[in-house]
Every structure is written in structure tokens, then in C-alpha cells.
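Hi Y.,

Following your request, here is the sequence exactly as I used it, all 562 residues.
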Amino acid sequence: NNETKQVIPFQASGKPNVFLPTKEHSKYLTVKNNIAKNKEARKFLEDLGLTTPDLFAEINEFVLPKLKEENTYPEYFQDIKKILDAFQSQNQEKRKRLIQDLKDCPFILAYNPTTGETKHLKYSSIYFSNELLNTYFENSTEVFYVAEEQYSLNQTGHTLLVNLLTEIGVKSTLWRVEFDPKFDWQEKSKLRNGNSCTYDIHCKDFKLDGIDEFLNSEITLQKSVALWKLLVNAIFKIENSYHQRKFFQGEYCYKFYSEYTINFDAYFLKKLKNSEWLIIDDTKYKPNDISYTSLPEIYKENGGELHLLAEVLGFKPDEIKAIEEKTGGKFLSKEEAKEWEEFQKLKSEQSNNTKDDTQQQIEEEKFEPDLKPTEVEIKSRELETADINIAFNTNQGNITLDRTEQDINDNYNNTSDGQTTKEEKPTVSQNVLNDIGAWGQDYAFRDLSNEFSENEDTEIVDLNTKGLKGVGADFKVIKGDEIIRIIEVKSTTEKFGQTLSISGTQWEVARNYFKLNDGDKYWIYCVFNAGKENAEIVKIKNPIQKWKEGKLLAHPINFVIK
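Below is the corresponding structure, written out as C-alpha cells. Let me know if you'd prefer a different format.
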């Protein structure tokens, strides 16, 4: 201290009145430097029991109260150096407490490049400046960055400052901001699939900092690429694929005897899925309008490549893109499918005026199962014998699964004039068929859940709920970042041996996996006796391989010569 006076070394309680000097200015009384530098004098003082001030105690007593004032004071930069010295301490308990205290202080000097404003902020309000963030937040008057240059530290000190602020929580990628979505009772009931609830534990959704402003701005290719890479960087900082996917999800937790947690697409993921922000040849697209392979290389360079992000955003699978290019058709997004269904519904309502009573009765039929999928014991087996054949329905363009060729022939009767006619089957409405299919999918999902229940890093993805109908499968099983199984579910209320339709798309997807030596990943789960107590699943692994081995027979096949 500048003040010079003589003091008693210790109080009666033993608490020191004076300390040995430190390299940084101290608020405590310290022995004059010219005395402490003398070896004999210093030894005498140390033998007397004098020590240097406890750095953490000084920070708690003198520094932290000033850092909470949200302004720069004369000793600010000296105090920051003290904090950096304490940050290097080996006393982990005191170091941990200091980090927690600093999180509550608006002590970080920050600036806004658009307005030039400088202020002191908490860690949760600022970023480390980098090119991606500068592009994403272009011209923003709200975002602030750490004013690193104003600390005037040498390289070692600057590295310590960055490490300190990183440990406190300052980010170099986008903040995910939690908020209460305030779902009403109906929305929460829908998330629970109608299940009962004693009380809610919590419901939290997430916004991505600046995402609304970004999507409402003029999106250039550079800004689009910056957002893509910021998302990739955010995912790479997360340890495993399970938690990487959780980054994009909100969470609803409720109590009904036990605690249950339901995940749903976060606010910002819905915005990204439903907005045109990806640019190809100067045209903006929604993620589900394009496939990952069509994304320009500028998105994927310098660590920007991540297939998981494309999957989460709902990119169109490459096999769909190939089929579209081949056929000239187009698979519908979830929103487009909904519009199409509404259009078809309108057409149906108009055509109902001309239908006869019998047809109207068929349309009004409903599937009424004996039991729910959750009430039936899981029975499943893998097909090992050649007891199923495949016949191609040329009228509908579908492949159908039958038990044997004899079963196929048994569906035909000889008429009196010697002609062969197919046995008439009762007409079933599409509504009933859809309900039967949904029952079978729920039943198959239970079987999958049982099989993979002990694999913590394995996820079962329902492609139908992801808006990916018509992609040649109903479920996929992911382990880590790898797809280990693709499942198409086919269901009937009839017993084993009933004909089941399989679309050309599904057969083509199975064939593509076979061509890539991944045929064992594609399975067909055939659900028989759907809705009944004796329901069972017959699983067909690698149907193309079984077909080539003669275990499945195509009857007949349409083929294309190229």
C-alpha cells in the first residue's frame, strides 16, 4: 500500500494485521517491498508467521463486490489478473467456488460491433467473436462479444482469460434458450397419447438465439452456411448421438404413479424444418425439399459435414430423390401430404353423393380390434423356412406376400365354361386398412423396444411420425451414428399365409440395401391376426437374399430393361 505505518503483526485472536507482498497490488496491508526483498528480513518475517494474503479471500472480500456493479472501475484490469492467478490454483474446491461466484457477476467486458457500445455483462449474454457468429448475427444491435483486445494481456494471459470464460460458460456457438411453451391441456394430452396424468413436473421448450430474426432477414448463401456450421459445431460439442438428438428436442415430464418424460421437436427445430433457408443455385429450400447429397459442398467443407443434422432436419432420403428422378414423380412432405389428404377428402365428399348405399357403408366401416396392441402378448419369430412366396400384383403395382404357390392357386376357382376366375373377396375400406396397419405398427414397435431395451445408445425412430411416409420403411434402428436395421411392417387380421401387399418402392429400397452389401439391415415384419389375442410377427430378414436363394418366390415379376 502507498500508506506507510507500523503495525502489530497479529491481533490477539491470531488473525494477521499484515501480509508479505504479492506481485499484484493487494487491498490488504503488506510489508514494504524493499524490506521483503531482503533475504534475511524475509526469513525473519516468515519465521514470525507472516504469509502472503489468501488470494481467494481477497477476491471474495474486495473484488467480487465491485464486479457486481456492472461498470469499469480503476482497478478492474488489476483485479482480473488476480482472478486469472486464482484460476490456476490447485485448490479445486476454492477454484470451483470462484467459478460459480463469477457466473453471477456481470463482470465480462463486451462490445457490439454494429453500435460500438461497450458494457459489462454476465457470461450468458455474450459470445466469443468468430466469423460464423458475425455472419449469422450480421447487423444485429443485440448481440455482444467478449472485448478480448481491451484486456491487453500477453499470449499466456489471453489464453488463461479464454479458458476462464469458457469454463464459466461463454460460448463460441449459438445459445439454446429455454422457455415454457405453455401448452394447454389438449396439447399435453396429445403428447401423452391420451394417457392419464396426476400432475405436470415440467415442460420446457427451446429457442435458438437469434433464429427468428435470422429467418425473417434476407438470407444469403454465406448466412445460410454459417447457420448450418453453427448447428454442426453445437452438435460436435455433445458427447454421444443420443444427447445430440436431444439438443433438438423439448421435454415434457409428468407424474402418473411413476415419472414419464416425453420429447418433442423444439421450437427452433420446427422453425428450421418449415422455413426456406438452405440455398442451391440461388434458390432457397426447406430441408424436406432436398436430399443431403444435393447440398452444395460449401456447407460440408471445413468440418461442416454431418449426416445426423440432415436426418434431424428431415432431409429427403437419397433413395427417395433417386426414385423421384427416375419416375418423374414427387414424394410429399408432411405438410403437402396433409393438403393432399384434405383435397382427397373434399373429392370423396363430393363423390359420396353418387355412391350407392353399399359403397357408403364400406367407407364408414371401422376397425374394431379385440385387444389393443399393448394388451397382446408379444409373439414373434424369424422366417427360416421357404414357406412364404412373393407375388407381384400387376394391377396395383404392388408385391404381395403369400404362404405358398398353392395358396395363390387356391384363390382361383374353375367356372363352368372352363375359364379361371379369381375368388371374390369382400371389399374393405381404406380407413379399416389404415387402422389395421397402425395396430400392426404399434405391435411391432413393442417387439423392437423389447429387443433393444438394454442398448442405451440405441434409438428406434418411427419414420411415419417424422413425416416420412412412402420411403419404403416404417422404422429404423440407430446405434450411435449407424443405421443397424430398417423395418417395413405389413399387417392383416388374417392368420399366417394371408396375402400382404408390398409396394414397389419398399422392394426397391430392400434391393438397394442388398446391392450395397447391407441387405441384412432391411427387414419385413409381417403381423398376422392383428387385433386378436393370437397375433404374431413373422420377420423376414434380407428379403432380396431369400428371393435369390429361392426361399421367397416372385410370382410374377415386372422387370425393366435399361
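The first helix runs from residue 33 to 36.

Thanks again,
Q.
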